Amino acid sequence: MPAKGPTAFLDTNVILYAASTDLSKARRAEALIEAGGLISVQVLNEIANVARRKMALTWPEVHALLNSVRGLLEIAPLTLETHQDGLALSERYGLSVYDAMIVAAALEGRCETLWSEDMRDGLVVNDRLIIRDPFRT
Hints:
The protein has 137 residues and is α/β, with parallel strands linked by helices.
């Protein structure tokens, strides 16, 4: 039997909320990051995009942010299998293609919970992954 992976996958928005001025969301995001978990290369790409485009960070600041995130969480690669699984999940569950790629990476990483503010809170995917909004009260 293969080894069990991390129990949680963190979506991009959760990571970015750690730098938020909304202290309640920032604290919750920090707690989830500190608990550890899995992210994918796609999450790293999305963080870099937001850091440059919306946060106006310099390239050295972007690299420092990404290095910090990579040091705190496990990273799942993007593979052809992830892509194919993501397309099937998008079709089956009506998720955006990009969200479905996140879900596929979480499933491949054997996660039980996917923390995301942007997806359908409470959705159970393939009878083994539940999507939870970490900021929902």
